[in-house]
Amino acid sequence: MQKTIFQKIIHKEIPAHIVFEDKECIAFKDIDPQAPIHCLIVPKKCIARVGEASAQDENLLGHLLLVAAKIAHQLKIYDTGFRIVINHGKDGGESVPHLHVHLLGGRALQWPPG
Ligand code: AMP
Fold first, then answer.
1. In this structure, is residue 114 part of a structural domain?
2. Is the CB of 94 under 6 A from ligand 1?
3. For atom 13 of ligand 1, which residue has the closest CA?
4. By residue range, what is the domain housing residue 43?
5. What CATH number does residue 48 fall under?
6. Domain assignment present for 69
7. What is the pLDDT of residues 17-38, one digit of tens each?
8. In the predicted model, what is the mean pLDDT of the chain?
9. Which residue in the list 38, 63, 98, 100 is annotated as catalytic?
10. What's the distance, Cα to Cα, between the start and end of the chain in Å?
11. Which of 53, 66, 87, 105 is within CB 3.0–4.6 Å of 82 for a Cys-Cys bond?
12. Is residue 61 domain-resident?
């Protein structure tokens, strides 16, 4: 199967501005930021989208959120606030079929989203 763009980043085949990495995941700046801080937290295990995660992935899913909060501290948006987004499927706005958590902050975000 063809690698997703995020697998290529995980395997360091294409560059990314990495802000965090551990055994389970990698986090890097979004190439098309929608806020002053916009990072993606991506599991190294290739799960296409959140709805395709299984019970086995329960800890991994929790880990991605804990890492998002850690990065919010690291990038100094924890106190001002931030948003975590996961897009699933066409109407959700998913464009890369490799599960990822968006971390957005650094400005007041609108609600509801567009
Ligand atoms: P989604 O629309 O939820 O699937 O999010 C995919 C995100 O990946 C978008 O916000 C893109 O800007 C971002 N993206 C795509 N290619 C890259 C890349 N090479 N490096 C960093 N971010 C990327």
1. no
2. yes
3. 30
4. 5-105
5. 3.30.428.10
6. yes
7. 999 999 999 999 999 999 999 9
8. 98
9. 100
10. 33
11. 105
12. yes
Amino acid code (one letter) for 17: H
pTM over 0.85: yes
Confirm or reject: Cβ of 35 under 6 Å from ligand 1.
Answer: no
- Contacts with 45 (C-beta within 8 Å, 6 or more apart), sequence order: 24, 57, 60
Closest residue to atom 20 of ligand 1, CA basis = 31
Active site residue 98: no
Ligand 1 contacts CB of residue 87 (under 6 A) = yes
- Tell me whether residue 13 is in a domain: yes
18 lines ligand 1 (CB under 6 A): no
**Domains of the chain: total:** 1
d(Cα 15, Cα 28) in Å, to the nearest integer?
Answer: 10
Contact 84, 70 (CB under 8 A): no
Distances (CA, A) of 89 to 59, 79, 93, 96: 23, 31, 6, 10
Closest atom, ligand 1, to C-alpha of 38: 10
Q: Find the 76 Cα to ligand 1 centroid distance in Å.
A: 22
Contact 5 CB / ligand 1 (< 6 Å): yes
